[in-house]
Each structure stands twice: as C-alpha cells, then as structure tokens.
Amino acid sequence: MKIQGSVAIVTGGAQGIGEKICTALLDRGCKVVILDVQREKGCQLEERLKRRYGSEKVIFITCDVTSKFQMKDSFRKTKETFGQINIVCNNAGILGQNESDAWEKVVDVNLKGVILGTFLGVLHMGQSHGGSGGVIINVASMAAIFPMGPDQAVYTATKAGVCGFSQSAGGLKDTEGIRVNCICPSFTETELVLPLLGHGLSGEKNLEYRDLVLEQGLISPELIASGVIQLIENDNNNGAVMMVTKKRGIEFMRPRKSRKSKL
After folding, report:
1. Which residues pair with 134 in a beta bridge?
2. pLDDT tens digits for 105-148?
3. Predicted structure pTM score
4. Which member of 12, 208, 223, 227 lies 3.0 to 4.6 Å from 92 by CB, making a disulfide possible if both were Cys?
5. Alpha carbon 210 to chain centroid distance?
6. Mutual orientation of helices 113-125 and 153-168 as an angle, nearest 10°?
7. With the C-alpha atoms ordered 114, 120, 125, 129, is the resulting torsion angle positive or negative?
8. Rg, Å, the chain Cα set
9. Which residues, given as ranges, of the chain have pLDDT below 50?
10. Cα–Cα distance measured from residue 69 to residue 63, given in angstroms and rounded to the nearest whole number
C-alpha cells in the first residue's frame, strides 16, 4: 500500500510507540489523526507535529478506546476532516494487575479497544460499506507468544487475544479489501517499561521483572514503527504476526492456515 496521500488513525498515539508510528507515517506523506486519552500530551504532540509537517497534516482527538461513543465519534471526525480513512493502527495498551477490578480495564483497553477499532475500521474502509479497503495494524506483545508471570496473566491473555484476533481477521482482505496484521514487540523503551528499571524497586516481583528486562534488552519505539511501516507497505502481509526483539530484530511467526471468514 502506498502511504503517501493516505489517512491514518493511531490510538494511544500521544507518546511512546504510538508517537513514533505517527512520525513514521507523517515522514512518508500520510495525514495522521492521533487518538489518546491523555489530552495534555496529545495536544503538545499535535503542536510539535504541526510545526514540523504542517497544520493540515495532523490532528489530535481526545479519545478513550473503552468508550464506544468516543471511538465512533473520532472515526466520524476523521472522515469529516480528511474525507477518507485508509490505515487504522490499534496501538493503545496498558499494563495492570490481576487484583480487584483492575484486570477489567486491562481487558477493556488492550483487547476490546482493539476489536472495536478493527470493527470501526471495517465500517469506514470496507468495500461492502462503500470504502476502498485499507490496512489495520494491531499492536500486541511478545507476551502473546511467550507468556509473562502470573501477576500479568490478564495482560498476557489480552495480547494473545489480539494476536489470534488479527490472524483470524485476515479473511477481511477477500471480503472487504482490508489487510489485518499484528506486531508483537518485546520490552520497549516506553513509559510502561522504563519504571521497571527504576531505582528503589522493592519486592520479589519487581526485581524479577527488572532482571527479565535487563536480560532480554530494550528495543526502541522507532524499530517498532519501522515494522509497522513494513506491514502497511507490503501488500503480501495479511494475517501476519511480526515479532520484534532485541536479539533477533524483526521476524515473522510462521502463519497458520485458518478458514476465511467475514467479521
């Protein structure tokens, strides 16, 4: 797919991996809509990117991916502003604990937010809805392939769900002209992971995670963004799972055959 002249939506785009995906898309002539629940950071990034790429190239919309109303409204505003949607990157995600009700938010953001973003992408880009097709990239994690510890069991489950969902949605290429791919990064230099390396950590769990991060190594958000660009530009990528690690770089998980289905 040719990125230049396209319009992309990036959830969780105000910082970290999302910010670098936005920048990589803008570098290639794409117009970008940043969705994020963090209004202050989103507005600051919008201002910086407008100065660099032009005021007509990027907008920020405050949006919580767990809100159907906000998500639907954000996609509508994107269509009204730029006239089309060609790329959807469901990147928003959080870490969380299993205790109490905290796990429910992890499921709502990491899994249900991705599913909702995918369905809205189909609604606005799908050929059966009058669209011209497009690409959806769902950001999962290497935890989907190599599960994390028991206190991150829910997080692991959500990322495995994103991975399986994206593979199953590969059939949308035939029914709607939409390619769906998934990227699974390892530990990344972001606000989610860096606190695990901070000073003053205490407790057995925190020390275990710090040691694991140090053992596996940190990858840069820019490397993940370059992987996303590959998934978008190469029309042969569909239902693909791209893995990104410090030791092996970018590689693909061997595809599994599945029935083609319409979501």
Report:
1. 178
2. 999 999 999 999 999 999 999 999 999 999 999 999 999 998 87
3. 0.90
4. 12
5. 24
6. 20
7. positive
8. 18
9. 199-204
10. 9
